[in-house]
Recover the amino acids of this structure.
């Protein structure tokens, strides 16, 4: 029974990805029999290369991904080196998970309103300081170099990397490594960099690559913050794939393949960068240099971290305010009045979206949890790692650009008459939810003391009883946490919902993205609030439920 | 549980090319304690895991473990009913003291009242009357260790396996607890296999002591 | 709204499951599926529509339109037991491409789109590829109220509708201004350029291929073109370059004095309305003459916003409702369309307190009672009277839309 789980997981996970890739690759070479194209050729590629502004789009995608990744990693390294082990750091850790649970596009919407020339910051400073009675004509968001896009991405990706780093630090015993380095006379930051970071990095490499891939091929955030003359490649590919001119689909397929190549190129660049840094770092570590004054980098880390954190928080707050505003005109710092009318106006549309979002998130998360427990139990029983966790198969859906296989998956779904069916949509969500759930659960699951199982068995309990009565209850906390992660991932999915849902299952995220392009900020605010509230509620539940169940069990409060 | 002897026949345990235990045979009579001594890594714990049927797949083993005429090596772990105690008490942290004990009671004992009585009796015996609803995390190390022993005994094991159960306790507690364990296993007439690297334990067990050779030599084919 | 959402959805799922079973049986027995168009009377259609779920694919970027569609859904449920689901599109082309893909994949029944709000190039594409059900418009009882003489309700961007789509809404291109900053509006292409030069950074238009943005291009071209009649049909490449040249010259001059120097454009009409509300710009565009009034009504725009048009007239068109060939709820869609054409539904749509867009009906044809409803509708303070709206100009042929969009992309959206 258990042995069925790993292959099932692989098929469910990799199946749609591979099939989708094929479904994208073939049309890229002009092969799509259902549209009467059978001649394998390079026509789509020639047309793709002739697209106006393609070079700019490509450059925009690449630079966004690389700069976002480099700056996020730098920031995380600086923050950890400067503050790891302090009380302030522990306090920040508590904020990370909720911050992460907010979907990308919600954060982007909040940031866009915060920093735009008619945004909240400018409203607060005008006209008394700036003298502006109308917003200045400054190109802050959607700037040609994608800086605002990078800012929005870093605000979301740096916390993700930080969380991954913290997990790795726990495993690598980072705190004691840091202490040892300091007893040799190393300054704290240099000590951390030299003694701890090299051990931590290999463990966060895959998450870093996932960030890189996401940055290169992001669509939803780009629709809010990226320039449009022209837009980054992935945005253009999605638009072409949805055009009424079916011939554009072939170009879109070629574009999706180009998108893959971009990610590959980005990864290659990263790999070279890694090697360079490692070569140089290995020499640096052994120079014996113990560091000097650290107040400046410490200061930079704090300011950068705080700026990002505050920007995200205030952006979200602004969305909350908008959702209850009567009207709020430049340069007023606060709305003219508060009302619940906006919520009433949207009540019916919102309930549908909430229901779709919830049903998808709950079902895919629950299924992912069962699948993860099954695979992990198999691993525990056999003492072997499955292909799933060994060769990074889990990261395939996270690293591969979504457009590259969702597009093909859509064609296949249409062929199998599954498009627009709930089950197809749920499956595609699963492809993205399962890896996160598995990764979030695996460490705690593997760290569980096997002797409890032996004790249970020797006391005469069957393996199933041990699993249900001992192991799973003891692991309730990590299971709930992994569930919350999966839930948040599902809520945040944009492209899979768009491609597989045939528009029939509007979720909070698809509605928010659709509205973000134009809608009244009061409506955008409502969807942003709900989009934020659902994952936050899930996280709160994940914290509260085990805490309540085990309120009289001190032994369950210790994080093992 | 009818008292019978625990017997190992020609037990060999290998990890890759290394032989940890080669052809070990011994008999433990009811109420008797046999002590296995050896440095860490010689395969003491693997032997106990194999006896319980919970050895990781990376190891290979041959031989038999018998209780009287019953060949335990043919049974799944939960049916072997070999009670085991580790150096940690391993009380289930999500269950109360009483639930921990009730978990071990055989399911055949149906009546709630009877189960309750059994649990309370065990607690009385451990000097922990009225502790049934307590959170195990609020007990002292010595108290927890005694609960762990009572939990094993309630599961009505055929034999007892002790995997350095005294090593984590402080000196004074250790002596008292050792006495507690040995008294109970003799009273229950349980054949007991004690694994340790502390000569004092072996002395207190007052039974046969076997010294396991340090790390088996690689097998030559 | 009385039934909880989950029950409604369960019900819908159950019905879908049932209809699946029916289809399977039909498939097994080799009978062709019953086509709504083949059955005779409207009563039969009404009966068949009961219990159907209509997935109405309509652009979802405007809250008031969304609210109106939601209202229609509630009414359809009450009156005809039809379940209406609004599939909110970012761009109507998404739905067109979906139906096209379904046809390509051989999905001739149980398509995912039942009703589509459409006009122009999207209608032209669907008609050309045979993706539409019908003609069905003649069968709608309420179609007799439609003004087919004075409103472009039978021709869609020069392409004959031929009963494949029912007119639903009238639009005319108008400009919105913040009257406190633009007291004397620029009423022609040349005047707009001159105004923009004096007020740099205070005007923009949605980025083509957005509908409103492309209409601005067409509007300017109509005004500047030497020969307007050439815009009624496709032309040769050389001719296109020659005829469109004045437009590009105009834009080359306008962009540098536009908002963000013409490097960033709002994504669509509502996004531009938002910018007008935020004070980022002083003049915005809309295809709904009532847009300013109803945005003032909803509190989005300050009540100092007014509407104006160009002296030479502005583009007017109708938008339509069509049913894809593979819809699984054709009867339901037809009944819903008929309801949307009813004087009651059209009056609510014309009411600036709800949506405020021009009706496709000929009010004079209606019963006195219905006429009274229309007459009693309040007129928004920012709405122009029919006389003030001036001459409606016909839409150019869809060819021009397509070519102008492509050319615009090459010229202005190709980056450095």
């Amino acid at each position: 029974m258990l042995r069925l789980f790993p292959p099932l997981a692989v098929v469910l996970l990799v199946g749609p990805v591979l099939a989708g890739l094929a479904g994208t690759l073939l049309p890229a070479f002009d092969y799509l029999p259902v549209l009467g194209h059978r001649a394998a050729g390079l026509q789509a590629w020639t047309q793709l290369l002739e697209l106006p502004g393609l070079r700019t789009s490509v450059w925009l995608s690449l630079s966004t991904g690389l700069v976002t990744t480099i700056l996020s990693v730098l920031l995380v390294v600086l923050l950890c080196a400067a503050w790891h082990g302090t009380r302030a750091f522990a306090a920040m850790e508590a904020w990370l998970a909720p911050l992460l649970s907010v979907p990308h596009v919600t954060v982007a919407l909040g940031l866009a309103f915060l920093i735009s020339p008619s945004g909240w910051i400018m409203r607060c400073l005008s006209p008394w300081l700036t003298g502006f009675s109308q917003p200045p004509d400054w190109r802050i968001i959607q700037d040609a170099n994608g800086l605002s896009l990078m800012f929005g991405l870093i605000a979301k990706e740096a916390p993700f990397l930080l969380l991954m780093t913290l997990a790795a630090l726990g495993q690598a015993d980072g705190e004691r490594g840091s202490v040892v380095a300091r007893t040799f006379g190393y300054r704290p930051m240099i000590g951390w960099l030299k003694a701890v970071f090299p051990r931590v990095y290999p463990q966060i490499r895959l998450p870093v690559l996932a960030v890189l891939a996401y940055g290169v091929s992001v669509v939803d955030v780009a629709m809010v913050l990226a320039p449009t003359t022209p837009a980054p490649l992935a945005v253009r590919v999605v638009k072409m794939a949805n055009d009424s001119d079916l011939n554009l689909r072939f170009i879109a397929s070629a574009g999706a393949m180009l998108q893959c190549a971009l990610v590959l190129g980005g990864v290659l660049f990263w790999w070279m960068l890694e090697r360079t840094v490692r070569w140089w770092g290995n020499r640096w570590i052994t120079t014996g240099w113990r560091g000097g004054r650290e107040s400046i980098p410490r200061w930079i880390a704090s300011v950068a971290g705080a700026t990002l954190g505050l920007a995200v928080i205030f952006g979200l707050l602004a969305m909350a305010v908008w959702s209850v505003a009567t009207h709020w005109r430049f340069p007023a710092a606060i709305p003219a009045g508060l009302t619940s009318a906006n919520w009433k106006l949207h009540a019916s549309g919102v309930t549908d979206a909430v229901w779709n979002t919830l049903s998808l998130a709950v079902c895919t998360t629950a299924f992912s949890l069962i699948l993860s427990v099954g695979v992990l139990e198999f691993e525990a029983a056999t003492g072997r790692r499955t292909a799933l966790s060994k060769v990074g198969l889990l990261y395939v859906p996270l690293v591969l650009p979504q457009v590259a296989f969702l597009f093909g998956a859509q064609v296949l779904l249409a062929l199998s008459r599954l498009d627009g069916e709930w089950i197809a949509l749920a499956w595609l969500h699963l492809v993205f939810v399962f890896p996160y759930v598995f990764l979030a659960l695996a460490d705690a699951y593997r760290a569980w003391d096997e002797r409890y199982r032996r004790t249970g068995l020797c006391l005469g309990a069957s393996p199933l009883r041990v699993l249900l009565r001992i192991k799973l209850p003891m692991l309730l906390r990590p299971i709930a946490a992994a569930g919350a992660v999966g839930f948040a991932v599902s809520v945040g999915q944009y492209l899979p919902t768009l491609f597989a849902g045939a528009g029939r299952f509007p979720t909070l995220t698809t509605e928010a993205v659709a509205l973000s392009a134009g809608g009244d900020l009061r409506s955008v605010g409502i969807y942003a609030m709900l989009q934020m509230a659902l994952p936050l509620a899930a996280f709160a539940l994940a914290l509260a439920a085990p805490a309540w169940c085990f309120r009289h069990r001190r032994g369950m409060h210790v994080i093992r | 549980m009818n008292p019978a002897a625990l017997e190992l026949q020609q037990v060999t345990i290998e990890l890759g090319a290394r032989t940890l235990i080669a052809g070990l045979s011994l008999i433990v009579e009811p109420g008797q304690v046999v002590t296995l001594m050896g440095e860490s890594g010689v395969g003491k714990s693997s032997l106990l895991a194999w006896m319980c049927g919970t050895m990781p797949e990376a190891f290979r083993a041959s031989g038999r473990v018998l209780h009287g005429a019953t060949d335990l090596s043919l049974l799944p772990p939960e049916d072997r009913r070999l009670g085991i105690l580790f150096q940690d008490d391993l009380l289930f942290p999500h269950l109360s003291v009483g639930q921990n004990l009730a978990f071990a009671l055989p399911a055949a004992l149906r009546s709630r009242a009877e189960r309750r009585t059994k649990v309370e009796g065990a607690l009385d015996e451990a000097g922990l009357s009225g502790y049934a609803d307590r959170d195990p995390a609020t007990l002292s190390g010595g108290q927890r260790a005694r609960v762990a022993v009572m939990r094993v005994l309630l599961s009505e094991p055929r034999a007892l396996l002790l995997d350095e159960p005294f090593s984590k306790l402080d000196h004074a507690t250790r002596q008292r607890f050792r006495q507690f364990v040995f008294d109970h296993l003799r009273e229950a007439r349980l054949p007991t296999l004690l694994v340790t690297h502390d000569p004092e334990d072996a002395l207190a067990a007052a039974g046969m002591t076997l010294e396991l050779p340090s790390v088996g030599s690689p097998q030559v084919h | 709204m009385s039934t909880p959402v989950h029950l409604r959805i369960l019900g819908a799922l159950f019905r879908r499951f049932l209809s699946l079973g029916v289809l399977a049986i039909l498939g097994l027995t080799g009978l062709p599926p019953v086509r709504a168009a083949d059955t005779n009377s409207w009563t039969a259609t009404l009966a068949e529509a009961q219990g159907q779920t209509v997935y109405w694919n309509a652009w979802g970027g405007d809250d008031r339109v969304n609210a109106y569609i939601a209202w229609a859904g509630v009414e359809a449920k009450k009156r005809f037991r039809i379940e209406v689901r609004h599939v909110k599109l970012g761009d109507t082309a998404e739905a067109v491409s979906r139906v096209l893909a379904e046809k390509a994949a051989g999905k001739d029944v149980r398509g995912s789109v039942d009703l589509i709000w459409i006009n122009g190039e999207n209608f032209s594409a669907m008609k050309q590829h045979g993706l539409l059900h019908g003609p069905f418009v003649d069968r709608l009882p309420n179609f007799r109220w439609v003004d087919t003489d004075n409103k472009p309700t039978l021709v869609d961007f020069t392409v004959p509708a031929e009963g494949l789509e029912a007119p639903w809404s009238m639009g005319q291109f108008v400009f919105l201004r913040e009257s406190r900053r633009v007291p004397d509006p620029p009423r022609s292409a040349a005047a707009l350029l001159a105004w923009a030069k004096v007020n740099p950074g205070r005007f923009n238009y949605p980025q083509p291929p957005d509908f409103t943005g492309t209409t601005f291009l067409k509007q300017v071209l109509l005004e500047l073109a030497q020969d307007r009649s050439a815009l009624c049909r496709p032309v040769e490449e050389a001719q296109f370059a020659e005829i469109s040249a004045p437009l590009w010259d105009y834009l080359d001059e306008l962009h540098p004095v536009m908002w963000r120097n013409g490097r960033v454009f709002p994504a669509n009409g509502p996004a531009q309305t938002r910018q007008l509300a935020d004070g980022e710009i002083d003049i915005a565009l809309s295809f709904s003459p009532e847009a300013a009034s109803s945005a003032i009504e909803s509190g989005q725009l300050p009540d100092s916003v007014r509407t104006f048009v160009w002296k030479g007239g502005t583009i007017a068109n109708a938008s339509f409702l069509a049913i894809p060939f593979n819809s699984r709820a054709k009867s339901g869609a037809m009944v819903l369309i008929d309801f949307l054409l009813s004087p009651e539904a059209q009056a609510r749509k014309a009411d600036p307190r709800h949506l405020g867009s021009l009706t496709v009906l000929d009010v004079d044809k209606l019963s006195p009672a219905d006429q009274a409803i229309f007459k009693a509708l309040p007129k928004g303070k920012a709405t122009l009277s029919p006389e003030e709206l001036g001459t409606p100009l016909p839409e150019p042929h869809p060819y021009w839309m397509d070519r102008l969009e492509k050319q615009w992309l090459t010229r202005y959206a190709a980056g450095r």
User: Anything to note?
Assistant: Chain A touches chain C through 61 residues (CB under 8 Å). Chain A has a mean pLDDT of 88.
